[in-house]
Amino acid sequence: MSVADLRLAFRIARRELRGGLSGFVVFLLCLMLGVGAIAGVGTVRAAIERALAQQGAVLLGGDAEMSFTYRFATEDELAFMKSHARAISEVVELRSMVVVGEGALAQRALTEIKAVDAAYPLVGQVVLDPPIDLQSALGKRDNMPGAVMDPVLADRLGLEVGDVFMLGTGRFRLSARLLREPDSVAAGFAFGPRTIVRTSDLRAAGLIVPGSLFDTHYRLRLSDGADLDALKARAESEFRDTGLRWRDARRGAPGMLRFVERMGAFLVLVGLAGLAVGGVGIATAVTSYLETRTETIAVLKALGAEGGTILAVYLFQIALLAAIGILAGLALGAGLPILFGPLIGARLPVPVDISLAPGALAEAALYGALSAGLFALWPLSRTREVRPAALFRDLGAERRRWPGWGLAAVLAAIAGLLVVSATLLSGMTWLALGTLGGVALALAVLALTALGLRVVARRLARVARGRVALRLALGAIASPRDETRAVVLSLGLGLTVLAAIGQIDANLRGAIARDLPEVAPSYFFIDIQPDQIGPIMQRLTGDAQVTRVEAAPMLRGVITRINGQDAREVAGDHWVVRGDRGLTYSAAPPPGTRLTAGQWWPEDYDGPPQMSFAREEAEEIGLKLGDRITVNVLGRNIEATITSFREVDFSTGGIGFVMSMNPAALAGAPHSWIATVHAAPEAEARILRELASDWPNITAIRVRDVVDRVAEALRAIARATAIAAGVTLLTGLVVLIGAAAAGGRARIYEAAILKTLGAERALILRSFALRSALTGAAAGGVAVIFGALAGAIVMELVMEGDYRFEPVSAFGIVAGGALTTLVAGLLFALRPLSVRPARVLRARD
C-alpha cells in the first residue's frame, strides 16, 4: 500500500469518527477496566518497592545487620563490627509470656520481646503514647525497669500506663504504648504483639540463659559511601562457618519485598485474565461496529477502494480508540491509588508515597495494546474479503472466513509477544505460563461450549413442541449470530476466576475448621530447660484431660556446607538452607517414625556424627545416603553423615525436625526442650496457668492463635485477589451488556416478526428470558468446572493440601450467571417489545 493510500485511509477514518464514539463504549470500557486494573496493581506495588528501597536503612534498623542464632557475637565478630561501623546497636528477639496478676486470677498472653541497648534505634524513631523518649521509658523507676507494649496486647490484658506485669521472673512497669517501631517490617511474621525492654533487664528476668530460643541482631551504622558488597563478602568470608546471617539496607525487608513482588505479579496475571475477558468485548464491539458501517464499506468498495485501504481505515480508527481506552485505563489505574493513597498507606506496614510509576504504566499499556490488537484484528480482517453485493445486504455468514495466513501469522506473533512479556515482566515463569495457558484453554472450551450449546439448542428446538417460549428461545440460541458465543465467553471466563477463588477460600477455611481439632496440639511449650522436662512430663502425663504429650530436645543450626561445598551453591535458594533450622537428637527412633531409606544408629552409638534427614526435603535438595552435612550450632561446626531418610509431616502442627542426630554428636551443647500438648479445650486454660506458675521461664504458643494469625493474612490476600477478580467479572458484565446491546437490532426484527404472526408480548418476553437464563447457566456451568480444576491445582500443587469440591459457592456461581444474563436480557428486551412491527418491517424492506 502506498503512502497516498495510507493518507487517504487516515483521512476517511478521521471523518468517520466525527460522528462520535457511541458505538465503541463497550470497546473503551473493556480496555479501560483491564488496563486500569493492571496499572493500579503496578502503581501500588511500585510505591511499596520504592519505599522499601528508599527506607531500607530505617526498615532494617541500620545500614547493615549481622545476626546470630541462640548466641551473642564473639569477641572476633564484635571487633570486626567495630572496625567498620561508626555505631552499633545490639537487639535480642525472643518469645515469652506476659503475666498480669497472680494465682488463679492471673492473665497470660504471648508476646514477641525485643530487648535493646542504649543505642537503639540507630535509624528512625520509635513513636510512643505518651510521646516520650524510648530510653526514658525503659529506665528504672522505684528500682523497677520500664517497658513499652503494643496497644493490642495492653488492651487484651487490661493494662494501663503505670501498671505492673511480669516477664519470666522479672517485674516490669508499663511506661508507654508502642505506636510504631521503625524496624518492625524487618522482623517478619510474629506470633504475638511486641514488647520492648532493655537487654540487661531481660537477663535479670531469667529469660536469656543457655539453651533459650533467641536471636541477636547487630545493626551497624556505616560511613557514607561504604562498599556494602565488599563488606558483605569480607564478613561472610571471615565468619562463613559461624552461622552468621547478613542483611543490608539494599534489601532491608527481603521477606516483605519478596511477598510484594510475588503478590503483585499474581494480581497482574489476574488482571490479564480480565483483559482476556475484555478482549471478547473488543471483538464483539468491533464486529458490531462494522455491521453499522456496512453501507459505508459498500460505497467505498463500489468506488474502487481496495480491501487493504478499507482495512487501513478501520485499523486507524481502532488504533486511535485503543489509545484512548489505554490512556483512560492508565489514568484510572494511576489516579485511584494516588487519590486513595492515605487510605491504602494506613493498611500497609511501611509508609508509602503513591505516585506515578512509569514502569508499571508502561507494562499496563503494553498489555492493553497487545490485547486490543489480538482481539480486534480478526474481525477487522473480514472487511477485505466480503463482496460489495453481500455488504449492501449484511455482513452475513462470509464474515467468518479465514483471514489469511499473513494475518494469522501477525496474530500468532502478537500472542507470542504477550506471553513472553507476561513471563518476563512477572518474574514468575511457571505461574505466568500456567495462568495464560489456563485462560487460553478456558476460552477455547468456552468457545466449544457456545458451539455445543447452539447444536444442542437446535436439536431440542425440534422436539420442544407445545412449549412455544422455550422453542423460540432454543431457536434463538441456535442461530448463527455471535451473541451466544460472546455471552458464554465473557461471562464464563469472569465467573471462572470468581469460582476458582471461591473454591480456594472455601477449602482453606474448611481445612482450618476440619483438621485443626483432630490433628493440631493445644499448645507448643518452648524454652523448657533440661532439668524441667522431667517434672513437666510427669505433670502432663498424669493429667486425665491431656490426651497426648510429645517432647524433644531442641537446638537451632545453620546448614553451611554439603559435602564440603557451600550449602547455597548446592541447594540454591531452598528454604532449608536459607536460615537456621530446627535440630534434635534421639538415641532411638521416636514413636511413629517411618524410615524410607537407611538405618538408625545404635542406641549406644558414640562414633562420628550421624544424621537422619527429612525425605521430601532431601529429594528436593538432591541429597543421598552417605552425603555429609555441616551444621553450625552456636558457632560450632558439626559435620554429620546422612545414614537415613524419614517421613516428616509438618502439616499436623506437631513436632517435626528436618534434621535429627545421634546424642553424642551434640553432647555438651546448651539447649532446651519443646513439648506439644493435646488436651480437651476446657482444660487448656488450667494447664497453661499451672505450668506457667511453676515454671515462669517457659513460653506457651497456643496453636489456634497462630492459625488465626495465618488465617488473617490469608484473608487479606483473598480480599486483594477478590478485588482483582471483581474487576474481571465487571469487565465480563460490560461485555455481556455490549453483546445484548449489539443484538438489539436482531431482537427488534425478531419481535416484529413474532408480533406479526400473532405472538403476545408476554410470550416474547418469556422467550427472551429463557434464552438469557440458559446461556448464563451454560457459562456458569463451565465456570464451575474450570474453577474447581483451578482450585484443585492451587490447593494440591501450590499449597500442598487436600482439595474438596465446595458446592455452595459453585452452584451460587451458576445461579449468578443465569440471573445476570436474565436481568441483562430483560432490560434489553423492553425496547424490542415496544416497537411497532410495521415500522420495523418497512425499514427492513
UniProtKB/TrEMBL annotation:
Record's superkingdom? Answer: Bacteria
* Acetylation keyword on record: no
Which stretches are transmembrane?
Answer: 21-42, 266-290, 311-340, 360-381, 402-424, 430-457, 486-504, 722-742, 763-790, 810-830
Cellular location(s): Cell membrane
Q: What GO CC annotations are associated with the protein?
A: plasma membrane
User: One Pfam match, by short name?
Assistant: FtsX
InterPro entries given in the database record = ABC3_permease_C, Membrane_comp_ABC_pdt
Membrane protein topology class: Multi-pass membrane protein
The alphabetized UniProt keywords are:
Cell membrane, Membrane, Transmembrane, Transmembrane helix
| Chief location category | membrane
Task: Specify the ABC3 transporter permease C-terminal domain's residue ranges.
Answer: 270-384, 723-833
Which PANTHER family does the record match to this protein? INNER MEMBRANE PROTEIN, MEMBRANE COMPONENT OF PREDICTED ABC SUPERFAMILY METABOLITE UPTAKE TRANSPORTER
Q: What is this protein called?
A: Putative ABC transport system permease protein
